[in-house]
Every structure is written in C-alpha cells, then in structure tokens.
Fold this protein.
Amino acid sequence: QVQLVQSGAEVKKPGASVKVSCKASGYTFSTYGISWVRQAPGQGLEWMGWISAYNGNTDKAQKFQGRVTMTTDTSTSTAYMEMRSLRSDDTAVYYCARVSGWYWPFDHWGQGTLVTVSS
Amino acid sequence: EIVLTQSPGTLSLSPGERATLSCRASQAIINSYLAWYQQKPGQAPRLLIYGASNRATGIPDRFSGSGSGTDFTLTISRLEPEDFAVYYCQQYGYSVTFGQGTRLEIK
C-alpha cells in the first residue's frame, strides 16, 4: 500500500533552517510528484509547492520562492523540503502528499511534521 | 490566485441527517479540477472527491460532489458519527489553493 512517512518534529530558532523528509513506499516513486502543504496551529491548509520525482522540476507558491527548496532522491524514494530564514509564523505542521502531476489531486498524505520556531 | 470561499464556516447536524457544504471560487475552475478533503483532529487530510464529482478509492457512496464553473457542493447523504470533521475544498486547475474549511460538528 502507498505510504509516505515523514521525519520527526523539529524545534528551531528564528533565522535557522529546517529540512523535512518524506519517504515513499508502495509505488514507483519516479512516476509521481510530491506536493508540500503546511497548516499553522488551528488554521487551514496552505499549498507550498510541488516537485516532480521524474525530472526534478518544481513549482512553488510565490510566497515561498527564494526561501524553500524542494528536492528528491530517487535512489531512496525520498522527497525533501528545506526552508531557510525561519520565522515564528512558520510554526506549523508540514505535510507531504503524492500527486500524479499537474491537474491532479493529492491522493495520499504523510502523517505530518511539526516544525516549531521559537527563541 | 483563485480564492475559494467555503460556507458555512460551521455546520451543526445530527447523525442520520443530510449535510450540504458549499465552495465558491473567485473565477471559473477549468475542467472542474476541484477536490474535497476530510480532516480529523491530529490527522492528515484525506481525499474524498476529485474532478468535482468523482469519489476517491474507498470513499463511501454517501459522499457525493457536484458543481461546475464557480459553484461546487459536497453532500453527505446520511451522516455517520465518523463524518464529523473539517472539510476543505481545493482547486488544482490554476496553481493550487484551498478553501478555509467547514467544520461539521455534532448537534
């Protein structure tokens, strides 16, 4: 069965960086993409961007361009999301989700990774 | 950016009743690229409906979606206790955006 398993919770200071991993299993990793979505405490869902595991192409929401890097490692079927210059309002649960490509919904989700930014 | 507005913000119903949730887009969504997700506390969202009206794998047939253009609806025909959760609509036809969510609570 399809599974996306994310790395554990992180606590970071303002200005630091964080890298969240998302390990996929149960399907051919390189034939799908991975989207990243975050959810601040008590708030709704915010799409950050996606990466094609086939060719590494990415597309990110404008507010994350320049501060977020998305990568994949097809040898380990793992996707990564790195965010720099963290601020307190980046405190959120970060989810990865599988996507077939552009114009497809997110059909499987990771369990989420809580990133807390606090001095 | 396409803005999705969900209504109502909170819906209070009893098990066995019918739930109707609305999602309105600021501009027409191409090819009805509109999905609905269910999220329970402490859990990741789960895909219910895609393409406005197609049930995802394993989703009970009491869940149905309809609509086109700018107006979409999620209907739960007969509420079960496990259906009380937050529901989000999402458009994936022009970048990706989510609605703010509708909380479905037990009356």
Q: What stands out?
A: Chain B touches chain A through 23 residues (CB under 8 Å). The radius of gyration of chain B is 13 Å. Chain B has a mean pLDDT of 97. Residues 35 and 50 of chain B are 4 Å apart (CA to CA).
